[in-house]
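thought: fold this chain, then report.
action: predict
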Amino acid sequence: MSTTEMASTDPEGIDGIRMTWNAWPRTKMEASKCVIPIAASISPIRPHIHIPTNPYMPLRCKTCTCVLNPYARVDFPSLIWTCPFCFQRNHFPQHFSGISETNVPAELYPQYTTIEYDLPNHNYNERHTELQPPPVYIFVIDTCMIEEELGYAKSAVQQALEFLPENALVGLVSFGTQVQVYELGFGDMNKVYVFRGSKEIGKDQVLDQLGLGGGGRRIGGVPGQGFQNGAVPNSGYTRFLLPASDGAYIIHSLLEELGTDQWPVAPGNRSLRCTGVALSVAAGLLGACLPGTGARIVALVGGPCTEGPGSIVSKDLSDPVRSHKDLDKDAAPFYRKAVAFYETLANQMVSQGHVLDLFASALDQVGVSEMKVIIERTGGLVVLAESFGHSVFKGSFKRAFEKGEESLGLAHNGTLEINCSKDIKIQGIIGPCTSLEKKGPAVGSQPIGQGNTTKWKLCGLDKDTCLTVFFDISSSDKDPSGNVNPQLYLQTLTSYQNADGQSKLRVTTVTRRWVDGAGISEELMEGFDQETAAVVTARLVSYKMETEESFDATRWIDRNLIRLCSKFGDYRKDDPSSFSLNPSFSLFPQFMFNLRRSQFVQVFNNSPDETAYFRIMLNRESITNATVMIQPSLISYTFNSLPSPALLDVASISPDRILLLDSYFSVVIFHGMTIAQWRNMGYQNQPEHQAFAQLLQAPHDDAELIIRDRFPVPRLVVCDQHGSQARFLLAKLNPSATYNNDVASGMDVIFTDDVNLHVFYEHLQKLAVQSS
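observation:
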């Protein structure tokens, strides 16, 4: 498949990079007039069959440390290459002496703009073959649950143990009112260390109590040092962490005996649950035994923390868990303290290179909003479900541990470094990473998200991880010398350990054109990626809602959209009927209309936990997935035609039609009234109505394909027109027919005061063409 063919079927192409603007304005002033920020969405380790792997170390520029790439100019007779970023001339080393115009290394092939290198691991020594550090999992299980819920959680962990590679190290911690750390390598007798849940426990206290204070700690913290055949050399490991081949059986038997928390709960009170201390103890244990290796804390939490640090609500059931209104009024007494606790724990886990995965299953909130900081900074997974018995939790938990193509492609211990051409500054990244505070000439002065750096830590990442990088243009005018390179260059360097422990470096180098001139350039407009722009806008709005006091998201979106349409629209002044948009911009107003109504902006009817969960997923998923979160897709199934896309509008509902809605977090199969009646009468079971049976089955088959490839697994809702669960569809549709406008008889109406897309667009045209 050619590169152009691949780009048409796969918008992210081989490089996994999409930009809001694919032609960049030359000056800071022109960039500000573009309204939509200059940003790139980067998928650092997205799998692709066309990426070659080199078995040697990369060749770097001696001035700016950029890696040799297809855009370098090469003087073959002199064996010199010129870096396109800083124009430094570099000599090729001796082992490149055989290169010529007809014999070039893979790095210089024009189609290999992305290339990988196998890096030597730190634990190499001359006497042994190179040994990979095994992956490590500590399962942290909440026991303050009813017997049935705990049973579901235990069986999920037992199933996960079957999927782990045999050399993976596993450990077990349970918690309720107190924290129990299980010593696995203690022969036939189980030994448990108990920590009080009511007060904060420092890392050193954890080590002392577990007997790891001196001898158990590894010298120097060299990643993976001394692993041989999957065994671990010192007693600190083998007491608490065993290879899955041995530890799985022991954990199985411990889980069989594990019961619900026996601490008495007074009437009218919540269970005493010390989630914060449990995570702190698990992080301390991993930091003592395995700093710098790919280790994950997998926490299964079934309710709110009420005991010790990280508490989000009091023990008294009459006190409700904090709401968005409480947070706005600063009337959530536990909130700031809990966030500060998790920020401190996040810093500890990032310095150790470890990940927190949170699987929260409860009808009430568990504190995802407070834990958002540690999940995002460590790059952990998060799943929010109603019960540990629900398909959302079960399917997602299984996918997190599966092998092969179905797996998430989990990787560990990554770093991301970005190099860019002169005059480009990096403001920061929104997404699952932590700034490493690496200063340099490319660091922007106004940070967004994780900023003030050109290098970030990615403790955990997977094949779908996607980061948004915001750029700024520093040049105020053209170069007076007139020697202006029309191309700009960006290079990302992602080092990581894959699931097998092999260290790799992926290098992606891309180029775009600078565009000059004060006028609206056709090239600038043609290079606008409206899907990427919609997702970047959504991420920026979510970030501003969390960090800026009294930020009015809806007004900010509206103002920016009016400015964009005023700048790039085609119209006569003060004549709304003359307004039209270039095809590159034509869908953008619709995206903004749906963003205004989405769960990212409208927090009414959502808890702070749900809002935090939605925003974590928005910030880490690919542009394609994030677009579906903002503007769901709708497919129509009828007797007369093949399945086809339908307008996301209430007018798409018809009695003889089935609709399939994909809003990312849920997939809805909606049967029209006539279809539902025929189904209830059993027509699909009669031989003469095979076509009807096939029509009923088709959306289920398509829903299965969506669910199979997605993480977290979406909720499947099957409903009928006028049924109670039809709300899952109606809430996402454009309310073109409401209770207060004239509609045709028999047409569904939506009970809302929201404006519809048509009215929204009319207002937009009117305001965009105003002379002022």
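thought: worth noting. Confidence is low (pLDDT under 50) at residues 1-8, 123-130, 215-234.
final: tokens above.
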